[in-house]
Amino acid sequence: TADLVNKKVCTVADTTTTKYLKRVGLRFEAVARVEDCFAKLEHGATDAIVYDAPILAYWVAHDGEAVAQLSGPIFNRDTDGIALPAGSDLRTPIDEALLAIKESGDYSLIKQKWFGSDE
Predict the structure, then answer these.
(1) 9-12 and 29-31 beta bridge pairing
(2) How far apart are CA 94 and CA 66, in angstroms?
(3) Which of 67, 81, 31 is nearest to 51 (CA)?
(4) Is the distance from CB of 46 to CB of 12 less than 8 angstroms?
(5) pLDDT in tens, the chain (119 residues)
(6) Minimal CA–CA distance to 28: which of 43, 13, 16?
């Protein structure tokens, strides 16, 4: 984060990213949508976007490939999940499908296709 000091940083308002940036003392502009940050970067109105890594990776691998590149480590690792009603019949099939995708190597292929990296 030290390399972002005195830089114009853009992120999405009212997210865990804004909480993190406040906690570490970085100044930033908070906008309504991540697409607003993309436009600012494309037009030189911001120096960096700090936001959810998968969303940034997808944009860089597709629409933003001539404009931006990913840099540095993930600052604040969040985990995502799938919430289901208690006792849901979907839990086992979802768990099995996710495990099968991971074990078959398809997960890495999907990640490479959509995010430009299988890491």
Answers:
(1) parallel
(2) 37
(3) 31
(4) no
(5) 788 999 999 999 999 899 999 999 999 999 999 999 999 999 999 999 999 888 998 899 888 888 898 887 777 666 667 788 899 999 899 888 888 988 898 888 887 887 776 55
(6) 13
Handedness of CA 105, 108, 113, 117 (dihedral sign): negative
**What are the residues whose beta carbons fall under 8 Å from the beta carbon of 83, sequence distance 6 or more?**
none
At residue 54, what is the residue type?
A: P
Tell me the pTM: 0.70
Query: How far is residue 58's CA from residue 81's CA, in Å, rounded to a whole number?
Result: 19
- Could you give the CA distance from residue 2 to residue 24 in angstroms, rounded to a whole number? 10
- Residues in CB range of 95: below 8 A, 6 or more apart: none
DSSP annotation of 4: G
Give, rounded to a whole angstrom, the gap between the first and last alpha carbons of the chain.
21
DSSP letter string, 7-41:
S-EEEETTSHHHHHHHHHT---EEESSHHHHHHHH
